[in-house]
Amino acid sequence: MEHKLESVHYSVLYREILFYFQEAFSPESEFLFLDGTAGEGGHSLLLLRNFPNSKLILLDRDATMLKRAESRLAEFSDRILSVEANFSEVDSDFLRKIGADRNPDGILLDLGISTFHLLHAGRGFSFREDEPLDMRLSSGGGISAEDVINTYPEKILSKIFYEYGEERWTKKIVEAILERRRHGRIAYTGELAQLVSRVIPRKFWPPGRHPATRVFQALRIEVNQELMHIEFGIGKLLEVLAEGGRFQVISFHSLEDRIVKNQFRDYARSHSAKLVTKKPILPTEEEVRENAASRSAKLRVIDKLSASDIRKEENGDEEE
């Protein structure tokens, strides 16, 4: 998500992201960054401007978003290696195949969905417009949200809405979906949003949010297998992060944050890494006023220790 570089777009927690990278790396030196969720390129733009001698690997699983980011970052094209891929694909072989000459020193993941997807993608991520129930982030096919809604059995639909959406009205919503699909497929976002709205009594609608928000979130997570990619991908990225490197992750709901927290904690316990943030960093009141979409963001940061750092840790910060 983008920050106010061009007055319209926002990058969530951009001040904090820059602070933690500048704390770890000298702007004058040469480093390799990896932005595993390019979005519209806001965070990458921040890094390329503030680390003028460094290079960046730009990844996104969505070809449309990657092209938008490339266009925005065109002035830095000689310092960018752009690849259409999911961050969960990154390992040593991947880096070698794309021509990276070193492991990344700084890695950033922003796990939020972009404003472009919500407002302009036309793939049914939002209920603002009546769009086909698609929700696929990548162009490689796979199951759509329409397939999930119309073909998944009751138990699996209930599991998705309750676990991924943390939706307390799951039972009644699933009953309504099963009844509706006896008469034909549910194919558009407007129809699904109205169905959920009718099921949940108005007095229980969440303040400031559409009552179908949790259901749409759960569908998007299922369609794109987001939690699986986060769990699998963070472990792989921790392995390829260079010694002395720093890894930052922004999550937007408790399921994502729990995975990040546990993966970072377990890796730090192996004595090869150190938690920079013991608790997640939250957006300031100022940022929430600037960009309401940032209100649920959480940032966690971890350092991969070098051999000398490990020795210092083992010896109570004293040199051998």
Question: What's a concise summary of this model?
Answer:
The chain has 320 residues and is of the alpha/beta class. It is built from 14 helices and 7 strands.
Structure description:
This protein has 320 residues and is α/β, with parallel strands linked by helices. The chain folds into two domains: 14-116 and 226-314, Vaccinia Virus protein VP39 (Rossmann fold, 3-Layer(aba) Sandwich), CATH 3.40.50; 123-224, DNA polymerase, domain 1. It has 14 helices and seven strands. It has helices spanning 14-24, 42-50, 63-72, 92-97, 115-119, 145-151, 154-164, 170-181, 189-199, 213-224, 226-240, 254-268, 285-290, 307-314, and strands at 32-35, 55-60, 80-84, 106-110, 246-251, 273-275, 298-304. The chain has a seven-stranded mixed β-sheet with strand order 3-2-1-4-5-7-6, sandwiched between helices. Helix 3 (63-72) links the parallel strand 2 and strand 3. Helix 7 crosses helix 8 and helix 11 (226-240) runs parallel beside helix 12 (254-268). The longest helix is centred in the last third of the chain and has 15 residues, at 226-240. The chain is elongated. 44% of the residues are buried.
